[in-house]
Amino acid sequence: AHLASLAGSMRRRGMTGEAIAAALAAENSARCQPPLADAEIRSIADSIAKYEPDAAGPALVHEAAHADALSRAWRGEYRWDQHRGTWRRWDGRVWDAVAEETVVADAQAELRRHYGALLAAPQAASEDKRLKNLHSEACRYSSVAAGLAFLKGMPGFHTAFSEWDAGAYTLNVADGLLDVRTQTLKPHDPDALCTR
Q1: Inter-residue contact 189 to 111 (CB < 8 Å)
Q2: What is the pLDDT of residues 106-157, one digit of tens each?
Q3: Which pTM does this prediction carry?
Q4: Is the separation of the CB atoms in 189 and 179 below 8 Å?
Q5: How is the beta sheet containing 176-179 ordered, strand by strand?
Q6: Which pairs from 72-77 meet CB under 8 Å and 24+ separation?
Q7: CA distance 24 to 61
């Protein structure tokens, strides 16, 4: 959330995507524990840089903060199916398509839980105010949906058509993933990206 907020502030001042990425990388290595991966830093910078400098106001900062929070909470649970234009949720066996309204409701609940937990901890008055604003924005459908729009392009969430069901010799059966060449059975795995 800190890096997304910082990126929005830099964009409002007219900084380019490259300059934002460089500044975020420095801030990430200096202050974030654990630091984000370079691809995540680049994704934040690229998302923010799509907006005109005067359009990167407080709402954009809220949306980017929502995406940042969801990217941490939902990794391995939700993915965006770019080809079909739908969200998918891991059910323990397959990545099942989920209605947009359901995803927004799930995101709203997760964001309110996340910001509520942060608000329960002591912090500076300015951070408390920022978190209260984010918690309030998590109640707005449009703000949460816009945060999800950011999330769709992030590594680990954006999934191309060619990535789904890519194991040509893998069958997803009730007990796990069966390799038909070796007749070995492995546990179900979200990284296999099976949809059937």
Answers
A1: no
A2: 999 999 999 999 889 888 888 888 889 899 989 989 889 989 988 998 889 9
A3: 0.65
A4: no
A5: 170-173, 176-179, 184-186
A6: 73/110, 73/114, 74/110, 74/151, 74/157, 75/156, 75/157, 76/156, 76/190
A7: 14
What does the CA dihedral 64, 60, 151, 41 come to, rounded to 10 degrees?
A: -50
Nearest residue to 156 via CA among 35, 18, 12, 36: 36
List the one residue out of 57, 37, 23 whose CA is nearest residue 146. Answer: 57
Look up residue 156 and give its two tokens.
């680990």
73: region left, alpha or beta (phi > 0 left; psi from -120 to 50 alpha): alpha
CB 95 within 8 A of CB 194: yes
Contact 25, 10 (CB under 8 A): no
Give the tens place of pLDDT for each residue, 17-45. 887 888 888 888 777 778 888 888 888 88
